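Recall the central idea of this unit: under ordinary conditions, the amino acid sequence of a chain determines the structure it adopts. In this exercise we apply that idea directly, starting from the sequence alone.
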Amino acid sequence: MGQGGVALPRAAATGASATPRILAPRRLRYACAMNAHDSSTPAAPADAPVYTDILAAAARIAAHAHATPVLTSRALDELAGCRLHFKCENLQRGGAFKFRGACNAVFSLSDEDAARGIVTQSSGNHGGALALAARLRGARATVVAPHNTPKVKLAAIRAYGADIVFCEPGQASRDEVTAQVLARTGGVLVHPFNDTRVIAGQGTATLELMAAAPGLDAVIAPVSGGGLLSGTAIAAQGADPAIAVYGAEPLGARDAHDSLAQGQRITGRVADTVCDGLRAELGTLTFPILRSRVREVLLVDDAQAIAAMRLIWERMKLVVEPSGAVPLAAVLAHRDAFANKSVGLIVSGGNVDLDLAAQWFAAKPS
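Accordingly, the structure predicted from this sequence is:
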């Protein structure tokens, strides 16, 4: 359904306190990275990042990225029937987790490569994050973005000083225009998710989550191109090999769910979802990582994502975008799977067009 016409289910009422609680970080006991699945699970590719890469990324970006809070809410715990720990990457620099991966990649570049300029493709959050990281490094940045990218995200990219080149929606157009820009500028590509440096950077959010909320039974992250979910899985299972890792994905962009179910990457689809940060398809690097580490990708519809977004706004007083609310929507849609468990949720971002949010919230519940 189009962005302005989402039908919302009525949120369940609760009389519990809506005041979020902050969990203070604790020292993380690091373990060796290993796969929690049985020997029949396909192995991750040899060039995939490992746990020590995420530890190195954490040190590399420490001077630039925020250590975002982990919040809890008794009201949402009661609604979900489990203990929820929200890793608030909506409070990250640039308004999303993407700054972690972009920062790690940009500050991994040699001075010579950085001087050539940096090129990426993005539906919004990675573009802004890359632009900010490039500015901090003193490098020029160019972002290839679909023409339907939300205005608020385009404004952020421009505010950080990057050039924008528009493309059509869909991965094929993104790749084609990105190749043209690279040929024209001679720049260096930092892919938004199919890049070991980016994946390692994204995993640092889960390092912080595991330190602040030890003893998690499961962690859920949104999935689009798979960089965040890959980094989440590597970091979580490096700290606790027994933890269950789930992806959360909108029905209108369900290529990750279908790819894992069918055992091969599904490509060529054009996503149709209000979750504009979850419209990319899995990469050649991220797909095998997810196959080897992720238990399941949980699907929700746009109405469920918006309802979860509204709950976070109302109960926790946090501005999140639909993509960032998808993990909560997944828990609420699959309560039995998480009953009485301790679950970490990666709230991936908060860059939302407030006019659109008002339209979504004003829509009649179904």
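The chain has two domains: 21-96+195-362, 98-189.
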